[in-house]
Amino acid sequence: MAGEPSADPTASVDLGRLRAFLVEHDLLDGEPLDVSLLSGGRSNLTFLVTAGVRRLVLRRPPLGDTAPGAHDMSREYKVLHALKGTGLPIPVVHGFSDDVAIVGAPFYVMDHVAGLVAERRGDVAGRDAAWGRACSLAAVAGLARVHAVDTDAVGLGDFGRPENFLARRLTRWSEQWHASTHRDLPLFDAVARRLVDIVPRESETTLVHGDYRLGNLIIGTGDSDGDEPTLAAILDWEMSTRGDPLTDLAHLLVYWAPTCGRVTHESQEIAEQPGFLTTGELADAYRDLSGRDLANLSFYLAFEHWRAAVIKEGIHHRSLRGHTHGDGFAGIGASVPLHLEEAWEIVGGPALVDPVAI
Q1: Assigned CATH for 9-111
Q2: 337 backbone φψ class: left, alpha, beta (φ>0; ψ -120 to 50)
């Protein structure tokens, strides 16, 4: 039936046209070409492209309808290209194309980076406490490095719109919720009104990743069991911009452990493993590395839970229409009201959560 998604997302890839693109960018000679789904992702589709011994990654938007301005591959490519040479651990990007005849949507190609992506408890099973602590510190140090980038120096001085960043984001995500298919969840608007009342009037501007969490980091595990973990790559820059860096910190904390006790993502069980920092310790480490004041962290935590509800509600409805691929989608819809309950408990009750004891 026309308009129905293919059961195999690689069916949209024209191997002949993709080969020509790779040859044009000096990424391929005469080797046989193979394309497989590396990760369905909760958002964009990620393909592993192999040609002989060469391994590349191709990123494209998800199947089906998406929110206006979302899943912008040219934006992600622009940022990664600009950050080359900054010392940030990022994959090397090789080319972007908006020719939808090649893979069915705009896409870009980058190097494959080996390592561990920790999405759930089992991904770090068997690691000792020293490993867990080192992994935690590598993650938070990477975030501090993102926020230390001189955006003017790398050509991103006009990237995004940092003016009135927090107020505009409240408006933008609220508009996206109401413009998209969503369930009747009155708590969404209740939280929104409370966030508008307490939004910080001033905020710092830095490069912002937009989705900084363990699941978007590649952890280098070394060649032997005793090697200390390192941050090998920071992935998924599609929501990056210039804005308030504490939104990134709160996002990391929201996906690190339950804020008020509700498990909204399986990644929140990782920090229960030996050696992993608590969210309070993680926040303290970021404060020490960056020198930033975290007095208003409660607002940011509530905001990131609320924003997660918008994003996940969209993924939930895309999944119902069959426009998602891979595992991990079963609990998306159920987590949306939990995010809203977490946000309301942080800022809707008589007292705010103490950010020192997150």
Answers
A1: 3.30.200.20
A2: alpha
